[in-house]
TrEMBL record:
Gene Ontology CC: cytoplasm; membrane
Keywords: Lipid metabolism
Active site: 446
Source organism (scientific name): Spodoptera exigua (Beet armyworm)
Chain residues that bind substrate: 385-386, 446-452
Start and end residues of each stretch annotated as Disordered: 32-77
InterPro entries: Myotubularin, Myotubularin-like_Pase_dom, Prot-tyrosine_phosphatase-like, Tyr_Pase_AS, Tyr_Pase_cat
MF-aspect GO terms: phosphatidylinositol-3,5-bisphosphate 3-phosphatase activity; phosphatidylinositol-3-phosphate phosphatase activity; protein phosphatase binding
Protein name, as recorded: Myotubularin phosphatase domain-containing protein
PANTHER family: MYOTUBULARIN-RELATED, PHOSPHATIDYLINOSITOL-3-PHOSPHATE PHOSPHATASE
Domain Myotubularin phosphatase, residue spans: 223-544
Domain of life of the source: Eukaryota
Protein family: Belongs to the protein-tyrosine phosphatase family. Non-receptor class myotubularin subfamily.
Length: 544
């Protein structure tokens, strides 16, 4: 959900533009002898090529009898065997689902609402069609639904993961309870990929005539997808002066299972040291460079917290790696050197509060000790954890269903703390952007480095680099910072298979989309896309 409330953040956000920085053998041997000795077997006839005898070849008794249907080949499994058609149940005769099902989609239930409209549920979506036929109605994928609720006995409220709400009113309380039960049953956790609707769609699409929707999906899947790493390394000039190198130490995900195969690190650091650093960082998420300022050579890196613990453990390899960031940036100065010739310190931006960082030492985590990292400064951003964000989102979603004309609506919105949390991410990203624009390298981390860290890093790059405000650049930014660097989309959006842990649910990516939306409200002409593009991302991510 995108709240159209303007955050007065002009005092700490400044978008950077291009003028702010310079552009940067045929068969042989035994196989052939066997092929000449034994001719190839003719192909087996397909199902549609089986010849039925003509009427003249049949006897008198067989002539008036229907020809037997040939059995499909034993090795062929049809979609109906894996995903059988579902029977449609109508609460009353004369009802219509109100939409055209796609491949593999079967309507299961169709009922009537109080206003004379219809409500229908398939194995893919929930559709509510008003009485007015010119109204397209509302279709919500089942996996986008968070929880259905009953209010005032007659109202069924469908709460979605992206903040959307749908309200249906029934004539009797029994109807409302029955539809709540149907939805709750359909939203039961699935156990494997084979139980998803995507698998049913793929199976049925192979056996049915192609539709316009299927052709569009096939064109999108067959279009060449350019991976971000190579073009981004070249565009940002990492290999221009030899201060940085690309390492394949994580090619088989031995270094870190949640990091991409290729990483950018200082050229003076060897792969053996990276393995030692991985043992010192939580979840083995080492400090890795993700962006470079082409003007002054400063970089943005990301990682997880160091595992200091109560005993104050330290790692000499980790200390040398962070010192190497500073040395590499000083050796990689571009055309815009800093205002003075002093060697600028590394800025470590910890997304947590100092109290949270100290508390994490009881669980083996913690933060960098200043005396062990003399070439670095540490700054805490005091951003909330996933549990505070989840509670804030639930309160804000409930408030969004109420009319905004209420006298205390805006004060209730402020009490949800949603906009305060969004503002905190913008402030933290502004701190990173200002430091990098001033020539300082920055390392960003939180606890595990996959929630608040991508929020800050991705927002800072939106501020610094106009390329990421284009359609292509925005896709690259999401693919790198959120997908390749291991944000837990399945856990945060409730898409994992089997039993679900509700404490892992949190709309972290949705909150970041609202951060981008607030920037767009201030600089509407600086982006190549609008808020409708962000809304489509919220549907895709929350329904995947």
């Amino acid at each position: 959900m995108l709240i159209n409330t303007f955050l007065d953040t002009e005092d700490f956000v400044h978008l950077y533009y291009p003028e702010d920085e310079p552009a940067a053998v045929q068969g042989c041997g035994a196989g052939a002898r066997m092929a000449s000795k034994y001719p190839p077997r003719p192909p087996s006839p397909e199902y549609s090529q089986v010849v039925v005898p003509s009427t003249s070849e049949m006897g008198d008794r067989e002539r008036y009898r229907a020809p037997p249907q040939p059995e499909p080949p034993p090795h062929r499994v049809r979609a109906a065997d894996l995903y059988p058609r579902l029977r449609t149940h109508y609460d009353e005769p004369g009802l219509d689902a109100g939409f055209t099902p796609i491949c593999g989609e079967f309507v299961q239930w169709v009922g009537r609402t109080t206003d004379g409209g219809t409500i229908a549920m398939s194995n893919y979506r929930l559709h509510v069609q008003p009485r007015r036929r010119n109204d397209p109605g509302a279709s919500i994928p089942l996996r986008l639904i968070d929880v259905p609720e009953i209010r005032d006995l007659l109202h069924l409220i469908v709460l979605c993961k992206n903040g959307r709400q749908l309200k249906c009113t029934f004539t009797t309380g029994d109807q409302c309870i029955e539809w709540w039960r149907r939805l709750t049953t359909a939203l039961a956790p699935i156990g494997s990929v084979q139980e998803t609707f995507a698998a049913a769609y793929a199976a049925w699409a192979k056996e049915q005539p192609p539709t316009s929707v299927h052709r569009a999906l096939m064109r999108a899947s067959q279009s060449p997808q350019r991976h971000w790493f190579g073009p981004e390394v070249e565009r940002l000039g990492f290999t221009a002066k030899g201060a940085w190198r690309v390492t394949a130490a994580n090619a088989e995900y031995k270094l870190c299972s949640s990091y991409p195969p290729l990483l950018v690190v200082p050229a003076s650091v060897c792969d053996e040291d990276l393995d030692s650093v991985a043992r010192f960082r939580a979840m083995r998420r080492i400090p890795a460079v993700v962006w470079r300022h082409r003007g002054n050579g400063a970089v943005i890196a990301r990682s997880s917290q160091p595992e200091v613990g109560w005993l104050g453990w330290r790692s000499s390899e980790d200390e040398r790696l962070l010192a190497a960031f500073v040395s590499a940036c000083n050796a990689d100065r571009g055309m815009q050197p800093p205002n003075n010739n002093k060697q600028l310190k590394l800025l470590i931006v910890d997304a947590r509060s100092y109290a949270s960082a100290v508390t994490n030492r009881a669980r083996g985590g913690g933060c960098e000790c200043q005396q062990y990292y003399p070439a670095a400064d540490i700054q805490f951003m005091c951003l909330p954890n996933i549990h505070h964000v989840r509670r804030s989102f639930q309160q804000m979603r409930t408030l969004a269903a109420e009319p905004s004309e209420q006298a205390n609506w805006h004060s209730n919105l402020e009490r949800t703390l949603w906009l305060q949390y969004v503002s905190g991410v913008i402030r933290a990203s502004s701190v990173v952007a200002r430091a990098v624009a001033g020539g300082r390298p920055v390392l960003v981390h939180c606890s595990d480095g996959w929630d608040r860290t991508p929020q800050i890093v991705a927002a800072a790059q939106l501020i610094l680099d106009p390329y990421y405000r284009t359609l292509e650049g925005f896709r690259t930014l999401i693919e790198r910072e959120w997908l390749d660097f291991g944000h837990k989309f399945a856990d945060r959006c409730g898409h994992q298979f089997g039993p679900e842990d509700p404490n892992e649910r949190s709309p972290i990516f949705l909150q970041w989309l609202d951060v981008v939306h607030q920037m767009m409200l201030q600089f509407p002409c600086s982006f190549e896309f609008n808020e409708a593009y962000l809304v489509s991302y919220s549907f895709i991510i929350m329904d995947s």
